[in-house]
From TrEMBL:
Name of the molecule in the record: Serine protease
Domain Peptidase C-terminal archaeal/bacterial: 837-905
Domain Peptidase S8/S53, chain residue ranges per copy: 176-625
Keywords for the protein's UniProt record, in alphabetical order: Glycoprotein, Hydrolase, Protease, Serine protease, Signal
Organism: Kribbella albertanoniae
GO molecular function terms attached to this record: serine-type endopeptidase activity
Positions of the catalytic residues: 185, 256, 571
Localization terms from the record: Secreted
BP terms from Gene Ontology: proteolysis
Domain named Inhibitor I9: residues: 81-145
Amino acid sequence: MKRLMGGWIVVLVACLITATVTTGAAGAQGESPGAAPAGSGKAGASDVYLVLLGEAPAGAYAGGIAGYPATKPAAGKRFNKKDAKVQRYVNYLRSRHAQVANSVGATREYDYEYSLNAFAATLTKAQLAKLSTTPGVVSIQRDKLAQVKTDNTPAFLGLNAAGGLWSQLGGQGSAGEDVIIGVVDTGIWPEHPSFAAAGYGPVPAGWNGVCQSGQLWSQQQCSNKLIGARYFHKGFGHFGGGLKDDYISARDHDGHGTHTTSTAGGNANVNASIFGRSFGTVSGMAPRARVAAYKACWPGGCAVSDLVGAIDSAVGDGVDVINYSIGDDDPDFLDADDVAFLFARQAGVFVAASAGNSGPGPSTVDHGGPWLTTVGASTQNRSLVGTATLGNGAAFQGASVTPGLAATPLVDGAAAGSEGCLSGLAPAAVTGKIVLCKGSFSRAARSLGVKNAGGVGMILYTVDQSDALLSDNHYVPTVHIRNSDGLAIKTYIAATSAPTASLSGGAKAFGGGNTMAAFSSRGPLVDSARSTGDLLKPDVTAPGVQILAGNTPTAFVGAPGQLFQAIAGTSMSSPHVAGIGALLRDRHPGWTPDMMQSALMTSARQDVWKEDGSTPADPFDFGAGHIVPNSAADPGLVYPAGFDDYRAFLRSQGLCTLCFGTTPAPVIAPTDFNAATITVRSLAGVRTVTRTVRNVGPAGTYAVSVAAPPGVDVVVTPSVLTLGTGATASYQVTFTSTPAADFDEYSFGALTWSDSAGHSVRSPVVVRPVSIAAPASAAGTGATGSLQYAVKFGYSGSFNVAPQGLVAATTETRTIVDDPANDFNANAPDANQGIQVHEFAVPSGTPLLRVQLFDEFTDGNDDIDLYLYRVGAGGVLTLVGASFTTTSAELIDLAKPGAGTYRLYAHGFETDGADAVYTLFRWLVPGTATGNMTATSSTATATIGGSADITVSWTGLTPATKYLGRVSYSDGFTEIGGTVVTVTP
């Protein structure tokens, strides 16, 4: 099967981004309240696909189709789906959906019209194959399941300061007035005091949402504060299970959605009590904003088809801001939800999205699209603390919101049957005692394990010293402490005949803060769709640890009955930015979302630490830095970006040509997208980038200052910009690597434009000098032939090229049966159904191992996936590569794999019939030439900023055979790079 949009059908997975264990979040039009949808009942499987069409959705349509005038709202105006022009164009889009779906006999489950021109439908393999060649279809994406991943923060962010953003908007009592925040999540608890409607006037003009009835939800649950609510479960129903454990309505059973919504737009001065103990008052960032809930996540996850339904409805309803504390651990720019947000930006909607909770490792950041404001998580200067005091007087402070506990016998969970305490604790050993437990995740479940075994309290210590200390609503009194403190308590227990401990009740403490959370996902951005990485993500950081905000009394995790909770995650930091976005919309109604994002980034501060609390954080931790809302309201200059800029960005990544337009997208270098940051992933000698700014302040003259990244010279031209109000100006930045450059390592700097009025418009600069910039791959055809390409140098000295290979593929043809579970457990590969195992040896000195499947080398429209393991001592398997698209076009490359035995598992995720016949191709590229390929360079001497033409020639190849080789580059001493060469005679 041929894949579309950049050569593939995109696989989608999403998850809510919370550092605690929760469930899923999403809604589209026309669902019957209370009715659970029919589903396949097959765990992890779905035959629902999202089919994206070429015309623009109504929220972004700028005209061009005869008889249909533009429907995109003007800057600063709310989208109005009731406008006659919009309704007429939407009817046209629906007719297109019907035409395409009917052409293959498919029944539509959702129509998306406002933020995405697409429909969702259950498709057979035959229907899918036919649609993939249907004119007007630009992408087909399989629906997959997603998992769900404040009080002091207004003061911490300076909102309540004299002259702060709240006072600029008339005070806390009017900040965010009539701005509408839509939250796609697990729903909302409508009776929560953070959403009380007293003192609110009629709903804002232009609001076209609904209050959808459902289980324990009538239309009266909405109000002049909570002005809309929808729920979406058609997609999730195809996965089976989960719905019976939740309210089939917009009512929140989990607590996640209530928390994020109250953080972004909850009422001011709401008393927050947990376990009957007051922790003061809380306020949303935009306390007078109106809120609308779009429930699309359920126990077990969120279907992307439901999430897109929620986004589409939110845009159609007329929201100004969307919070999206949901992600998929994959920053793919073309996922359906991300494309929907691209068009939402065109409709004037500002979107804040969680960066993810997969940190602190590199390249874990989610939501890579430049049209999203991607938010990391860091600490504030308020903690919720408790103290565990031992019988010997030693005291250990940690995180807690639970009540205290007097001196009580203490036992080590490891000695009582379970170190982690999730299960297996011996009641005889723990009844009536405080239990020492180890764990950084599933924390509340550990206190439940203690309670179920008869324990009365818990001291929980982290797995790693840098793990965040978190204050969950535990089932027994609990203090969460550092690993080193836990080990000290463990030693005390072992050395004491009758160990005891007391726990103080949780209380507020002030100090510290500005430390990145260990869980917060980090850059650099590496998109699965082969992005060059010339874009910095995350964009900013905001408070995301111990955020005190709303809860549902029926929460799945944690002690029930609590209307508040203090939890952590980038799910918690994102709604801070969504709420600030609402304030900026209130302050500057004419600003577009790109201007708001730029203002938040260029005004950010950098006095933030890494998770160890002592190392300065860098742009891969926090993007441009920590948000400073008051400064963002008056940024001076902004970096504007429109729809064609985003199309050009996508084209620069090699993902598309039309890129959601009717004509080819503009051509730019990847580094020239007009971001408020500058990232050069591969600086080979010299690179010049261009940026454009717009003056949103008074007329003024701005001078530039540069903090150059180490090993890089930076020149800005011009160095002075004089701009009137509303005027734009462009400048160029030339980067030149120096002999001091540390090749293949990122270095950081900054570029700042300043005027006499006090504006400082700062852009982080991220540069990775490389010794050579060469194409990753090159392809040729014919038994005899040649190809050419250019390389660029980042050093001066000798330059050598050497051919490796070519080698013909080793092929194996086998039959694989279908896996009825449509699931592969990578931790126990031999236990899976529908597998074939290929084992082979890799010799020493092999520069490249490739295994590959081709759609044309299976006997049907099959989906076969690949998982590659290295076999270690004792047969221990280590996963070293995987490829699992929605067809059988799979490829795994392993550079310098190392000598040893490797085992490849082919998995029949979904075969066309009971089984499939496939051919596996495998290459072991040698470290030397094989006599059938030569490589030459136009120069033997490299100079910084210079280039060379490489010519690769081959001869004597066997027809109908696939060959693989490599061209190696060296400086005369060591290899500095290489290009993979494929030849099909």
